[in-house]
Amino acid sequence: MHVTEWGDAANPQVLVCVHGLTRCGRDFDVLAEALADKYRIVCPDVVGRGESDWLVDKADYTYPQYVSDMVRVIAKTGAKHVHWLGTSMGGIIGMLLAGQPNSPITRFVINDVGCFIPKHSLQRIGMYVGVSPLFRSVDEVVQAVKIVSPFGPLTDQQWHALTLPLIKKTNAGMWQFRYDPAIGDTFKTLPLSDVDLSEYWGAIVCPVLVTRGADSDLLLPDTYAAMCRKPGVTGVEFVNTGHAPMFQSDESIAPVRAFLLAS
Fold first, then answer.
1. What is the pLDDT of residues 116-174, one digit of tens each?
2. Which of 52, 93, 94, 170 could share a disulfide with 84, CB 3.0–4.6 Å?
């Protein structure tokens, strides 16, 4: 597994940031830079994504594998307790780990995913994940990412910064995504249905901040409201943003920083 780190490696305060389904740890560059004065920040590329290796057995692209991998990542930091920020898939991994007895996660930011995931959002994701198109230029890739990723009002520079770590150039001079297309096999081989994660959500006892894009189709308003009613949980929504907020501005980072550093 490839890991990007920020901050002082000797800092005992560790923040683990885990990305979404087809993304990579470089999604958190801006956020990590803003928090590096307080944390050692660890941003792994989940297996099959970014610069991490692809799995030989494609059936192993499952949440038990991801949770096991993240336990090892945390162990390698040497920290007994960590804070966690997870976007979408990274939020689900965090939910599964934070709900375990004696979990190492003591503060948890779950970004635009919740205890109920509607079937229609999975169908939308299934339309693009697992394909491996070729592009003639970086600009072409950026435009394709914009279509499937309603991250909110970003500048052209921000879109390029969020796209470049996801792609590589082929021997033929074309561009393609780095992720293993097999991560999308589940969307094609199994019938999709609503996903209820309330058992795992209910087991979490640490303080939680739920962040949501106000136009998100994955974390629905009713689900978000219900999650925020749980003791120890607060929430913040970002306007003009779908799935998922990317924490590219001081305004979006501020509530995350305030929550994580609250004593």
1. 999 999 988 888 887 889 999 999 999 999 998 999 999 999 999 999 999 999 999 99
2. 94
3-state DSSP call for residue 16? Answer: strand
| Torsion angle of C-alpha atoms 180, 54, 164, 254, degrees rounded to 10 | 100
Is the CB of residue 43 less than 8 Å from the CB of residue 87?
A: no
Let me know the angle formed at the C-alpha of 234 by 194 and 8, rounded to the nearest 5 degrees. 100
User: Which SS3 state, helix, strand or coil, does residue 222 take?
Assistant: helix
Q: Which helix (H) or strand (E) holds 126?
A: helix 119-126
Measured CA to CA, the distance from residue 169 to residue 120 in angstroms comes to 33
Structure tokens at 151: 């991250």
Contact 96, 70 (CB under 8 A): no
Residue type, 137: S
Q: How far apart (Å, rounded) are the C-alpha atoms in residues 3 and 105? A: 19
Task: Report the alpha-carbon angle 75-57-122, nearest 5.
Answer: 85
| Domain locations in the chain as residue ranges | 3-118+195-261
Read off the pLDDT of residues 55-76 as tens digits, 9 standing for 90 and up.
999 999 999 999 999 999 999 9
Question: How many residues comprise the chain?
Answer: 263
* Residue 187 structure tokens: 């969307």
Q: Which amino acid is at 27?
A: D
Q: List Cβ neighbours of 109 (8 Å cut-off, separation of 6 or more).
A: 83, 84, 85, 86, 208, 209, 211, 256, 259, 260
How do 105-111 and 82-87 pair as beta strands? Answer: parallel
Q: What is the CATH number of domain 3-118+195-261?
A: 3.40.50.1820
